[in-house]
Amino acid sequence: MPTALVVDDSGASRTLLKGILRKHGFTVVEAADGEAGLKELESNWPIDLVLLDWHMEPMDGPAFLRKVRDDPRTVRVPVVMITAEASRQAVVDMAMLGVQGYIVKPFDKAMVAERINALGMGGA
Predict the structure, then answer these.
(1) Is residue 124 part of a domain?
(2) Could you tell me the CA-to-CA distances from 120 to 41, 47, 100, 106 in Å, in that order?
(3) CA nearest 36: which of 18, 9, 10?
(4) What 3-state class would DSSP assign to 116?
(5) Is residue 123 part of a domain?
(6) CA pair distance 105, 115, nearest whole angstrom
(7) Which domain holds residue 69?
(8) How many separate domains does the chain show?
(9) CA dist 58 to 71, 80, 85, 110, Å?
(10) Which is deepest, 21, 99, 103, 109, by most CB within 10 Å?
(11) Residue 54, Cβ neighbours under 10 Å: how many?
(12) CATH of the domain at 97
């Protein structure tokens, strides 16, 4: 069973994402910010997918993503950014950092399922 990491400071978003991911056959671990996300990534390795929020404290999504992409072990882990940042520049910036998908909040189950399926990870 693949494992997904949800990194988001919103408990409601984490709960919704966990439910969607579980229906797609994932085991899910979660973190409320990038620092905690890095710890979860390490302690639950291997992680097959990361769903990542942008705005969190003390470590935001872009800082988390840079660390993930700088580590040879995690450089290829698919990361989907889920954020309210919808500007063209934000999307381009995250693509340059190596995200494999981008979902603008507010999101729904179908949007997340579509992105998971596009990555070839759709289960249920």
Answers:
(1) no
(2) 21, 15, 12, 23
(3) 9
(4) helix
(5) no
(6) 14
(7) 3-118
(8) 1
(9) 20, 20, 18, 30
(10) 21
(11) 19
(12) 3.40.50.2300
Mean pLDDT, each 10-residue run in order, the chain (124 residues): 96 95 96 97 96 95 95 95 87 88 90 92 66
**Which residue type occupies 100?**
Q
What sign does the dihedral 93-98-99-101 (CA atoms) show? positive
Residue pLDDT, tens place only, 65-88: 999 999 999 999 999 999 888 888
Q: What is the pLDDT of residue 84?
A: 87
Query: What is the distance of C-alpha 120 from the center of its chain?
Result: 15
Q: Are 66 and 40 in contact (CB under 8 A)?
A: no
What does the alpha-carbon distance between residue 87 and residue 118 come to, in Å, rounded to a whole number? 22
Residue type, 49: L
